[in-house]
Amino acid sequence: MKNTYFCACASSFLIALSMPAQAERADSDKPINLEADRMSIDDVKKVQILEGNVVLIQGTLRILTDRLVVTQDADGFQKGVATGGANGLARFRQKREGRDDYIEGEAERIEYDARSEKSEFFNRAWVKSGLDEVKGPYISYDALNEKYVVTTGAGSTKSATGAAQARVRAIIQPRGKSENPAAQTGKPATLKPGAN
User: Fold this and answer.
1) Terminus of the chain with fewer CB atoms < 10 Å: N or C?
2) Ordered domains of the chain (ranges, CATH)
3) 183: which DSSP letter?
4) Residue 65 near residue 91, CB atoms below 8 Å
5) Bridge partners, residue 158, by sequence
């Protein structure tokens, strides 16, 4: 019973991370493989904690982090928080539905709230979907309204020490064109010198 409950909560968190980019639908039918140095489950408080070199794999979805905490409220909604990992970052990657590319992202902390269907990436945040990518100290994705917000720190332009935060960055590809220019001709794109 404990493992079933934990896997259901972890699965909800995994699916949430991939919502911004039309994740591979078949992944939700695949088993969840979990590895960690330590796992604890509190059925009364509805809290599951994985710690130390956490690896979570479900189909094409992979999450690498140092700590993953999944909680469930009285109404059955889950909230997941992934922190740390290699170089202090939590990372995820998943194949996009019907495409040969992936959505991937990383941050020092990644939170998902199933009730609001909102994903948040805190500190050194980066999300890439196909050739589009956004980067900044804070990224929020509202799945209900299909909106991204990227700021210099959850609305603040100063760090705790008063130093200015880095600006946000985005690369957005034109819609209606091939995401891979080389795919249009079958040949790699090359630069040619201009006529004099």
Assistant:
1) C
2) 2-176 (2.60.450.10)
3) H
4) yes
5) 164
